Amino acid sequence: MGSNTVIKAEGISKKYLLNQSSTKSDTLYGNFINAFKNLGSSSPTKEFWALNDVSFEIGRGDRIGIIGRNGAGKSTLLKILSRITPPTKGRIEITGRVASLLEVGTGFHGDLSGKENIYLNGSILGMSKREIDSKFEEIVEFAEVKDFLDTPVKRYSSGMYVRLAFAVAAHLEPEILIVDEVLAVGDAAFQKKCIGKMKDVSNSGRTILFVSHHMASIQSLCNKALVLKNGAIDFPLSDTDACLKHYLKDVINQSKSEIALRTDRKGEGNFRFRNIILKDKAGYVINAAQTGADLTLQIEFDLQIENITNLALAITIYSDEGREMFTLANHITKEPFGNVSRKNVIQCHVKQFPLNNGSYLCNIIAYKDSVIQDYVLEAFHLEVEQGDFYGTGKAITTNQACFLVNNEWELK
Q1: What is the pLDDT of residues 342-356, one digit of tens each?
Q2: Contact (CB, 8 A) for 13 and 51
Q3: How many CB atoms lie within 10 A of CB 353?
Q4: pLDDT (tens digit per residue) in 238-267
Q5: 365 lies in a domain?
Q6: Same domain, 292 and 316
Q7: Domain containing residue 33: CATH number
């Protein structure tokens, strides 16, 4: 490796064997147990390559965003870089201490208290007690869990757990910090706080690898990015804006298929999105929204049960550069729907649509009592045509604005 290179991956591939009657584990213990379970089994297996011939070099102090849809291989790559699982083929050279935050539960022992887990994680990173002592108060203050330090972490909420886990990973001075999209568990203020901390870590010469479906966070934090698709590199490590442009163009092309056909969704599935239909003010189906015109988004859905109560729905709209524009949500403007059956029609009405002409991406999510029922990232793309937002006969061009606000001026 070069003197400034801290991670070098050469031809990394990861194969799993899919078997209806058995599972492949990433751990030695899991594979040992599965070996006994599958004795005498003749069920057919199928090879699945989660990663295939992935190569790149990362320099000291780089902030790298790893981009890709669900199933692209992002989490598998981070597990290999974190030495949680070995590659099937290829080799990796890493210089420096690695701290990882890959999912809720990573690196903590549930029966130990928050305080004990701080010292346990520090020891795993090779730090002395004195070094951990010097960072202890800073970690506790950042995580905002001072009143729960002596509580076993298995009693923490997911938000508390992630706050403490991130604080430990970021403050115990690893040379390389690897963070998966687990930060999505926290609230918006905490996510912003974490992005700021990761910038501070990078400015001190340490390296960040960051996976997120929130393109604005990638754009804000990362100076370089890498796009994965179906386990392979779709766009090589390069400037973040170039990677985002490539990724979002591909997403728009893929999102033209019906939402019902999407398999990379999350949630319990009692409520499932099937399609989103756009309608104009008169109720006619349209292919695109128009700046300044009233818009209705009609949500087609399926229920696996007779009816569902306390249903919260949200549509988040992003620009083609990954910037979050706004979120439409029934539980914010009013209340969750009390009782939804198969006979109901769900519509979201937007008056004087405020976005200028262009292409936008939309995430959709449904909750029941804060439990995700269906979550589809980049579910559909929204085309917006130029319109007379202000009713003056003057259309606004894209180089003047992307978000329009109704306003009045007067001279007194």
Answers
A1: 999 999 999 999 998
A2: yes
A3: 18
A4: 999 889 888 877 766 665 557 888 888 999
A5: yes
A6: yes
A7: 3.40.50.300
Phi-psi region of 138 (alpha: psi -120 to 50; beta: other; left: phi over 0): alpha
- E strand or H helix at 115, and its extent? helix 114-124
Domain match, 98 and 198 both: yes
pLDDT in tens, 67-96: 988 788 998 999 999 888 999 999 999 998
Query: What's CA 10's distance to the chain center, in Å?
Result: 26
Cα–Cα dist 248/166, whole Å:
28
How do beta strands 232-239 and 224-229 pair? antiparallel
CA dihedral 245, 246, 248, 252 (to 10 degrees): 130
Which value, to the nearest 10 degrees, does the dihedral of the CA atoms of residues 258, 263, 265, 271 take? 70
Dihedrals phi, psi of 347, to nearest 5 degrees: -130, 145
Q: Which residue, of 204, 229, 253, is where some domain finishes?
A: 253
Q: Taken in order 187, 214, 71, 96, is the CA torsion positive or negative?
A: negative
Q: Give yes or no: residues 127 and 271 share one domain.
A: no
- Whether residues 95 and 193 fall in one domain: yes
CA-to-CA distance for 246 and 253, rounded, in angstroms? 11
Strand order in the sheet with 295-303: 285-286, 271-279, 295-303, 346-350
Whether this model's pTM surpasses 0.70: no
Residue linked to tokens 């508390």: 160
Q: Judge if 183 and 272 occupy the same domain.
A: no
The CATH number that applies at residue 380 is: 2.70.50.60
pLDDT for 154-193, tens place per residue?
Answer: 898 877 888 888 888 888 778 898 988 766 665 667 777 8
Amino acid (1-letter code) at residue 80: I
Asked if residues 377 and 317 have their Cβ atoms less than 8 Å apart, the reply is no
Q: Which of 11, 322, 64 is nearest to 179 (CA)?
A: 64
Task: Please check the confidence at residue 34 and state whether its pLDDT lies above 90.
Answer: no
Residues with Cβ within 8 Å of 336's Cβ and at least 6 positions away in sequence, in order, are: 310, 311, 312, 330, 367
Structural domain that includes position 195: 5-253
- Rounded to whole angstroms, how far apart are CA atoms 298 and 235? 35
